Every structure is written in structure tokens, then in C-alpha cells.
Amino acid sequence: MKKNRIVIAILLVTAFITGAAFMQQTKITVKGSDTMVILAQRWAEIYMKKNPAVAIQVTGGGSGVGIAALINGTTDIASSSRPIKSTEVEKLKARYNTLGVEISCAKDGITVFLNESNKLKELTLKQLSDIYQARITNWKQLGGDDAPVKLYGRENSSGTYVFFKDEVVKGDYAASCQTLPGTAAVVNAVKKDKYGIGYGGAAYAAGVKHCMIKKDEKTTGFLPTPETIARNQYPITRYLYLYMRNRPSGETKKYIDWILGPEGQKIITEVGYFPVK
Amino acid sequence: MKKTITILLMITGTLVVYSQNASDTLQERMETLIGRINSLDERVALNESDLGKLTKIKVSGYIQAQFETSPYNLAKPTEPENTFYIRRARIKFTYEATDGVKFVLQPDFSTGNLSLKDAYAVASLPKFPSLSLWAGQFNRPNYEVEYSSGQREVLERSRVIRTIYPGEREVGAKLEFNPVKVPVKLQLAVLNGNFTGGQQKDVDTRKDIMSRVVYSLNFSGAGIGIDIGAHGYFGGLMSKIKYVSDLENNMDSTASNYKSYLDKKWGGIEIQAFFDILGGMALKGEYIAGKNAFVGTSKTDPYKTRAFSGYYVYFIKNIGKKNQFVARYDYFDPNTKLSGDAVKKEIYYRTLTLAWQYYLNDNIRFSLNYELPKNETNADNKKDIKDNIFGIRMQARF
Question: Which of A68, A249, B247, B307 pairs with A14 at a CA distance of 20 to 30 A?
């Protein structure tokens, strides 16, 4: 009799613990790109409303910070506005014996911001590179006002900084380029500075003029729009990524599948980015 | 009436003078404030410039404190060994002067053994950022050598690597090619070739060449990554006496041996495979074989040339985010031409190492390690020597 009571008690406790485990909220952490933080927060808010058993925590800090957090195990998902570097993959291999999982979740056109009173409307990629390497230092060299060019950019933990450097500047940024934390800060700075120029994700570009970009002098300039991005006409287009240590499973997989599905992709366009397909 | 007008004029005049003074005072204050703001701007710009230089210096390092126990003591073979000790205590300073230019300095401060590990400069050509030139003291181009001791899953490198690459580092120059769009890595190094960790300059005039190539295959859909590669060592050791023991341990005392070069030539193939299975798993292996040469001092201790071979295989399994199980099997035969009876001290070893790692966080790791070497038996060692080593290590890394 006493033995039966003990067995029943053990079964009840086991059932309780198992039930509690199922009732416990699953937590998913997303950390990284400041470019993607608004998008990631929107995704999280809408998904959590539909799935109250899942708690998703989103923080920024920059693509580099997110990937470092993925490597040291303090985040489940790293959002990044640049591809993972080979040195970062080596660290993942050494620590977790995997190559990591890369998911392209959206497209972005890096917008070049000019103050609304700036006469210039378009620049070539070469001119942009020269501006950011301080080979062009006065707007009059480009047909604008006789005024020094004021450069605004991002800090080096930013994926946007790395992407713009690798694809456009193709060299060192000028020492005079003022680094700012986040695209919103860059937009704000250019908005207040008649002779400022900055760059950042398309979703933040309100209150400043968007500069048309052309591949070279002979081609047409384009603004980043859904059509020019989809047709690969806009020259500074990039993918936005989500990285994980391992192939996702359970609630994380459901969340990723939702992001890549019609609902998640619709939110991308609402925020100002472009669907991955 | 006149009085009233006069008083009004006086008051008005006073007011005008007062407001003029107030305006001048306000103007002066604004100019003073603008001046102060401008000077603050200059100071901030100077501080930013200094801070910018400081952020180019990165300091990292690790300390490995461990406890080891073994029934076999190298200094006194009949007595057991049981000790705490600092295996490594390293600080690495990296200064990235500009994109593609880097300086690295890494001393090791383990007890009674202050030594220089790394001291090199790296420069990439601006038009060829994938190509970099290294000069100074750096790791020899080999997988297990370049795999940091701070990351390695077992306490020590395999026996073959420890023997043919003593001290891991060499002094020389190296070209590395790491293209961004092609998953290949090429290394070509020209080295002194006789470095064992202590000497400042080479002992002969011939330089040794090392080359290595690795190609990475990525099957991301299946969660598999494979790196395959090969390396070669082409060098020689100048004999400073005429006594040389050849590959079959025959003494050659021909006069022409003096200042002749003994071959140090070997090749290796390597593979590392990573599998995204239940949290991560890796299989790594390398096989190396060739001829090595060793320094001698006299007729009774001649220079030696030996044919050798060795290999290792790692199995590493991640268990959750914080634990790892590791098993390594390594084999090393220092003399493939002769048995252990022919040359009593040149016996082969088969070693099984089992380890468990626990990552407390990104900075602290605990390791349990059990190494079970099994030696070739001969007339001197009729049984396996009882030299298993059990070690516990705490590593703090920053």
C-alpha cells in the first residue's frame, strides 16, 4: 500500500514537471544588426501576438556584436546586414563544430542621404568611393556649392559599415568621417547639415533627400525602390541575414519559417525593406 | 511741460544706454560661449583621435592552470608524478595600424619559463587584399600547429606534431593567399628550419620551405562542411661533425659528411569535417610521413636521419551548448625502417586521449583529460610503460 502511494506520488510529480515544461514559455533571443532592429521587433511583436507561448527578445548593437554573441552562446539568432566573415565561421567551427546556418530573410538597398537643400541629385559609385576616401572634399568638385563635404557613417561593428566599405568605398574610410550609432542618427545628422552625406538602410530614410546612384557615368541613376531592387538595377543592394549556430528546430524553426512565409515577408515591405524573393 | 519732457528724455536716454549695455554684455557672453564651445570641439576632436589609435590595439590572452597525475615521472621514471602547474599564461597584443597592416606580439609567462611565442608583422597589398606577407616568428603552416592551444579540445597536441614541429613557431617569412570568393587557402613559408624555441639565429645557411593548401567544401543543405588539404616540408640540417647515423642506424663517418645537408623532407594530408548533427560534431585527421634529421655532438651521439610516420584522428561531439566530449587516437613511429629492438629508444606509440570539456561561459572552460599512451615493447620495455596521465585544467580566456 505504502509502495503504491510512493509510485503514484512519483508519477504525479513527473506528470506535473512534464506539464510545466510544456506550459513554460519558449524564449528566443535575437541580437545584432541596428539596420534590422525595427524589422526584427515588428516580426517579434506580431509573432508573439499569434503565439503567446513564445517570448522573443530583440536587441541591436550591430551585426558584429550579434555574430559575436552567437559565437559566445548568448543569443539564439544573430541578425546581420552583412555576410558572416570567414574568421567568424572559423570561430563557430572551433566552438560548436558547425559552419552555422545562414538565412537570407530580406533585401535592402543602401540609400545615400543628402540634405534636401543639396543641389546634387545623383552620384556614381566611383564618386561615392572618392567622397568617402576624402579624394573629393568639396561639393564644387561635383558641380555643387563651394563647401566642404561632411561625411557621416557608422561604427565598425555595423554590418552596414562593412558592406558599404567592401562594395562601395573599397578602401579605408577617411579619418574625417564621423561615426554614428545607427542609421537613424546618420539621417538626423544629414538632415541638420546642409553639406552632409550619409548612408544607411532604406527603411530609415525620412526627412532627407535620397541620392540616385549609377554604376558609372554612362548608365542611368536609380533610387532604391521595390522595382529597382527586384530587377537588380539599384547598384548598392544587399541581403539581410539571420544566422544560427545549428539548423533550427522546434519553436525557432517555426519562427524562421513564419518569417520566410507570406506573413513575415509582407511585414518587410511595411517596414521599408524588400522581400527576399 | 518742459520739466516733464526733460524727465521723459532723461529716462528714455537712460533706457537706451542700459539696453545698449545689456546688448553688449549679451553679445560678449555669446562670443565667450562660442569661443569655449569651439575650444571644447578641438579638445574632443583631439581626444577622439587619440582614442581612435587606442582602439586599434587589441589585448587578449589566456591562463591554463592544471593538475596532473601520472604513475610515470619523466625525470625519475620509477616515481609517480602529481602536480599543480601553470601550463600556459599568454598575453597577445595585436595592433592594426591600418587596413591590412597588423603587428602581433605574444609572450608566454608560464612558471620559470618566460618565452616569446609570436612576434610578427602582416601586410596586405592594397591592390591584392587577399595576399598577405608575414615576417617574424609565427606558427608553422600546419592545421594542429595553427589551431590555438586556447581552443584545442585536448590538453596537448599529437605526438607526431610535437616531434616534427617543436615549439610550433619558426622564424622566417610567409605568403598567404586567402581569396574571398574562392574557398581555398594557400601558404608558402621560408623558414630558418631549426628553431626549437630558444635560439635567435639559424644554425646553418640553408633555409627550409613549407607549403600548405586547404580547400573548403560547404554542403550547407546537409549541414556539412569539409576542409581538405595537404602540406609539405622541404629542408635540411647541416651536419657540423662527420658522424651521421643513417636511416638504418648505420654509422657513417665519411669526412664529406662534415657540412653536408641531411634531408628534412616530409608531406602530409589533412581533413576536417563538421556535421550539424544534434548540436555539432567534428571528425579531424592528418597523416604525415617522411625523413627527419636530428642534431648530434660526437661519435657516441651522432647526427641522425630517420624515416618517420604518424597520424591522428579526432572525434569531437558537442553536447548542448556547454559540454563537449572528445576522443583522439594518435600514432607516431619515429623510425619506420627499424623495430624497437634494433634501436631501443626509437619505439612507436599509440595514444588514446579521452576528454570532457565544460564551458562555464565564453571566458572560462574546464577540461578533464585522460591520456593513455601504449608503447612498442622491446628488450628494454617488455611491457607497456605505466605512463597514463590524468589532467584537470581550468582555462581563463579574455
Answer: A249
